[in-house]
């Protein structure tokens, strides 16, 4: 099942209909979403905020507080540590427990261990005792503001396996599944400016810049964003016709250069002086090089 980059422009992607014809792996019975959440935290009505017809396969449930789930947790951590190896930001095991499993929601996609591609087995590792092996991970933690969550972690096996074994949009759909399942209304998150992941993060709703320069983080060139989750944005990830969203934004007349500290600090100063809120345009983020300057917008009310 080869990774397909862009879904044909002529393909209609409807948020309320199955996505299987555009993304065939979603219908593969050997690949299913998983929920790794302590039982007391489970949602009464999963999927109640954003109506979405993309996730028809039942999620596999594992209770992280049960001893027998430790092998599944080990595989999540194995995937995570390899995915974040190059950025030197792997998650310590205790952070996974204290800051993810206990307060939050851990989910992703899993694949039948018997159907894992060879490159997954050799490059990431596997445990023959497990029926299902996690191939992606998304973690969100609730904040003190009702309806607002923080995205703590997103990773997939795609960057670690052979190209022919990659599943196109696994990262995007892992995050979409988590947002849909948890009924997230508002999501804050972080990304390093110029990280390719910013192309995914900007496709779930309006993309407000909360901080442009963040010296309190280990990486000062961190962008903190806040998205008001909006299903209008989701299909444009596949069709790349996000220019239809342009009418929602008004340019402020200034730009930010993600490669330049002074430019990031200048935007940060405007934010601190409460001149915002300021937004980035998902279509520009997706279609421009990662080091290109980005226009800063206000959202039309
Ligand atoms: C970032 C990450 C989650 C993306 O997941 P993925 O499964 O590879 O990505 P998807 O297939 O869902 O999406 C691919 C799209 O994302 C963007 N993208 C993802 N990785 C990219 C890369 N290395 N270079 C350029 N664009 C990339 C592109 O827009 C691409 O779509 P396009 O080819 O149609 O333009 C994954 O690469 C990963 O685990 N990276 C390491 C951990 C990490 O940096 N996590 C993000 C923390 S904020």
Tell me about this structure.
With 301 residues, the protein is of the alpha+beta class. The protein has 2 domains: 1-184, no CATH class; 185-301, no CATH class. The chain is 23% helix and 25% strand. The protein has 8 helices and 12 strands. The protein has helices spanning 70-83, 93-101, 118-123, 170-182, 198-201, 236-239, 261-272, 282-287; strands at residues 31-36, 60-62, 105-112, 132-134, 136-142, 148-156, 186-192, 205-211, 222-229, 249-256, 279-280, 294-299. Strands 1, 2, 3, 4, 5, 6, 7, 8, 9 and 11 form a 10-stranded mixed beta sheet that branches. The longest helix is centred in the N-terminal third of the chain and has 14 residues, at 70-83. The mean pLDDT is 94. Bound molecules: coenzyme A. Coenzyme A (COA) binds next to strand 6, helix 4 and helix 5.
- Overall mean pLDDT stands at 94
Helix content: 10-25%
Share in β-strands: 15-25%
Integer-rounded radius of gyration = 19 Å
Beginning-to-end CA distance, first to last residue: 43 Å
């Amino acid at each position: 099942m080869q990774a397909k980059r862009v879904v044909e422009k002529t393909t209609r992607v409807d948020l309320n209909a199955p996505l299987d014809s555009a993304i065939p792996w979603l219908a593969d019975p050997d690949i299913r979403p998983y929920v790794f959440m302590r039982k007391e935290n489970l949602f009464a009505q999963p999927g109640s905020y954003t109506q979405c017809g993309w996730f028809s396969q039942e999620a596999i449930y594992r209770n992280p507080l049960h001893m027998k789930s430790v092998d599944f947790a080990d595989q999540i951590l194995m995937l995570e540590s390899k995915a974040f190896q190059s950025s030197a930001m792997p998650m310590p095991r205790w952070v996974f427990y204290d800051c993810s499993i206990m307060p939050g929601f851990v989910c992703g996609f899993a694949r039948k261990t018997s159907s894992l591609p060879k490159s997954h087995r050799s490059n990431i590792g596997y445990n023959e005792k497990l029926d299902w092996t996690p191939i992606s991970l998304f973690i969100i933690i609730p904040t003190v503001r009702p309806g607002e969550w923080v995205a703590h972690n997103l990773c997939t096996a795609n960057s670690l396996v052979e190209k022919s074994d990659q599943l196109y949009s696994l990262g995007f759909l892992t995050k979409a599944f988590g947002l849909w399942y948890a009924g997230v209304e508002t999501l804050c998150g972080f990304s390093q400016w110029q990280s390719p992941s910013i192309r995914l993060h900007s496709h779930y709703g309006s993309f407000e810049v909360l901080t442009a320069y963040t010296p309190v983080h280990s990486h000062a060139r961190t962008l903190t964003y806040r998205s008001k989750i909006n299903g209008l944005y989701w299909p444009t990830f596949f069709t790349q016709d996000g220019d239809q969203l342009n009418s929602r934004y008004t340019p402020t007349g200034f730009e930010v250069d993600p490669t330049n500290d002074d430019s990031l600090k200048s935007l940060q100063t405007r934010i601190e002086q409460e001149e915002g809120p300021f937004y980035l345009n998902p279509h520009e983020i997706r279609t421009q090089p990662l080091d290109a300057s980005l226009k800063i917008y206000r959202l039309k009310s």
